[in-house]
Predict the structure.
Amino acid sequence: MAVPKRKQSNSRTGMRRSHDALKARELQSCSNCGIAVPTHVVCPNCGTYMKRAIIKDEQAAAE
């Protein structure tokens, strides 16, 4: 079984983990009502997704 010859330095460990941080969700404005909504998500305000009405009535949008 392979064993490392030397301990990996803290700097090298940090460089490897530099891409592991969580990133904020990308927000875009809704094409129908204009509020900021995460990408690839049905708008909770008006119920549209990609200019199509997914949630038809007001009660379903509130739930």
Notes: The mean pLDDT is 87.
